[in-house]
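Our working data are protein records whose layout never changes between entries. The record below serves as our worked example for the rest of this section:
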Amino acid sequence: MNELDPVIHATSRLRITAALATLADGESIAFPRLQELLEMTSGNLSTHLRRLEDAGYVLSEKAFLGVKPVTYLSLTTAGRRAFEDYTTQLRALLGDIRPPGRIR
């Protein structure tokens, strides 16, 4: 089995990637809304998003809502693929584990 992607595997980055994976292709979410959903500080969220951006998994787009700057976030095609690969590998790993009481 291949190693789980260390970029995604960190708990906070896994939560971010999973949340962004729920968006349809082409959809994005505003930074404050993602921060609220994940109950993360802005600094912590920013740090993990930067790591995901550096890996090419997350796209960050700056825009203005009136005069207020807003950052919108989405998974890139590579990010979506990496998350799908990660979940496939994790399922394969967990598939080898039997629930308690069912050992034969």
The domain at 6-91 is CATH 1.10.10.10 (Arc Repressor Mutant, subunit A). Residues 21 and 80 are 7 Å apart (CA to CA).
